[in-house]
Write a sequence for this structure.
């Protein structure tokens, strides 16, 4: 079994750092850099425009991530204190973040009259790079406890051995990264990257949520019709991904402005 190592906080020269926040911040910077490199390779609009696009997407992701986390995962807290909706440091939902990022990004694209398929692909091309560090943050703070288990994949906590779903998803996320790179290399039809990712991520996430803890009282994820909020979101995302792939097949490929720079280092 895997030993539980608590890396939630650490100190450097007397300054305390919170691992989750630090890793998420580095993930945001990495995602932004990858998006800029991809935009240059495709010869898209000015880099300043791409910078603002990624800023809007990340801001929408954090806002939506917390708001939907409060609404669907902690409704009892929200009923007691409606201001919890704006306490962004109190928790994030991955699908809430995705939803917020999509709404913010598409709003920006519409305002600036940009191609939504191209810019959605730009965001999703960089997504797995940042997600890898975000899920590393989840793994080091153990904020996604799973069911008790005697499996070799269990993490040995003081109160018992459990699946650590953040750690498991971290181990699977490189597959999403490889998928994005392969699709980007094989086709430049706008929408293909986003469609492929929207189909693949639910196939990975949906079964994992059956391993979530149900015995931790208020800390256990709520169920709606026997499924977690994330599982319901997986179903919707999968259908959306199939539709996007079908539409993307009708799009003309984008030319590469700088073929040698088509992939990040």
């Amino acid at each position: 079994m895997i030993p539980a190592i608590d890396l939630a906080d650490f100190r450097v020269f007397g300054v305390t750092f919170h691992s989750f926040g630090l890793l998420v911040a580095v993930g945001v910077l990495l995602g932004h850099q990858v998006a800029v490199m991809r935009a240059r390779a495709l010869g898209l609009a000015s880099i300043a425009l791409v910078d603002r696009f990624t800023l809007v997407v990340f801001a929408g992701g954090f806002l939506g991530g917390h708001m939907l986390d409060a609404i669907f995962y902690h409704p009892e807290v929200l009923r007691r204190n409606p201001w919890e909706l704006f306490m962004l440091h109190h928790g994030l939902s991955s699908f809430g973040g995705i939803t917020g990022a999509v709404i913010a990004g598409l709003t920006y694209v519409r305002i600036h009259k940009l191609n939504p398929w191209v810019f959605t692909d730009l965001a999703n091309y960089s997504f797995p790079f940042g997600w890898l560090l975000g899920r590393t943050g989840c793994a080091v703070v153990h904020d996604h406890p799973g069911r008790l288990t005697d499996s070799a994949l269990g993490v040995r906590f003081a109160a018992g051995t459990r699946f650590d779903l953040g750690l498991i998803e971290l181990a699977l996320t490189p597959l999403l990264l490889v998928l994005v790179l392969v699709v980007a290399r094989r086709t430049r039809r706008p929408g293909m990257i986003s469609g492929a990712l929207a189909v693949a991520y639910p196939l990975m996430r949906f079964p994992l949520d059956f391993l979530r803890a149900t015995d931790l009282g208020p800390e256990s994820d709520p169920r709606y019709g026997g499924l977690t909020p994330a599982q319901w979101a997986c179903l919707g995302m999968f259908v959306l991904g199939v539709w996007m792939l079908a539409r993307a097949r009708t799009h003309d490929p984008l030319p590469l402005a700088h073929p040698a720079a088509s992939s990040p280092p």
